[in-house]
Amino acid sequence: MLNTLRATTFVAVIISMTAPVAAAQCGNDSSGFTNWVEAFKPQAVASGIHPQVVEQAFANVSYNRDTIRADRGQKSFKLSFDQFMEKRGGPTIIARGKKMKNNNPQLFAAIERQYGVPAGPLLAIWGMETGFGSFLGNQHTLSAVATLAYDCRRSDYFKEQLHAALTLVQRGDLSPAARGAAHGEIGQTQFLPANVVRYGVDGDGDGHVDLVGSRADALASTANFLVGHGWQPGAGYQPGEPNYVAIQGWNAATVYQQAIAHIGAEIDGG
């Protein structure tokens, strides 16, 4: 059923990400979650998601307390640069990143030719986000996104993410059973659903944007994200250089931005 619905138009995608949601109350605990979901479903249908897709997507959705705990406890971004690098295993990421670059020269050369983004920052992001794909997260993606859409702290932002996640299910690019990070991030470089819709690339040419199983898709999509945030081919990406603004678009935390720039430079050869 899902594969027959892949022909969603770009306009329908945008509508599905911005359509108004039913007047359901957000909440700061699980008590109103079920009612909120039931109020959200007809709005998802009205915004272009097929009713059967909506029912499939929400069949196993539940309020995710692990997601709420993670959302309230992001303390590592308050560390100093040296503390952050130690906590994230910066030297290990650099060492492994150099090997990954050397072992996949054609892949990284092709991405740089198309997007103008060298291997270093892509490997820095890949390594910091999931240890080069070794751990993509264990939270039910749709439950995580729905929980944050219901939660009052950033409800509007995550309603957009929930509409985008349903669009991906409808396209056949996200399984209703998919698991990922605590905020609903998807794949080897941890894209939020709306960013998969906006920047996801079929890097291996198989007809799907698979950020979980395809490193070509994940890395090409990451390069495309950076281009979408101002990346200029050939320009530097250290603090104060033109492409640092694109790195800032990846993550709002200053220490994370600094780590991407530093690790990327080490991998690219200083």
From TrEMBL:
Signal sequence annotation: 1-23
Record-linked PANTHER family: LYTIC MUREIN TRANSGLYCOSYLASE, MEMBRANE-BOUND LYTIC MUREIN TRANSGLYCOSYLASE B
Entries under InterPro entries matching the protein: Lysozyme-like_dom_sf (IPR023346), MltB-like (IPR043426), SLT_2 (IPR031304)
Source organism, top-level taxon: Bacteria
Keywords: Signal
Gene3D superfamilies per UniProt: 1.10.530.10, Bacterial muramidase (1.10.8.350)
Pfam families for this protein: SLT_2
Protein name, UniProt field: Lytic murein transglycosylase
Naturally occurring in which organism (per UniProt): Pseudorhizobium tarimense
Domain Transglycosylase SLT residues, every copy: 33-237
Keyword Calcium included in the entry's annotation: no
The keyword Signal is assigned to this record: yes
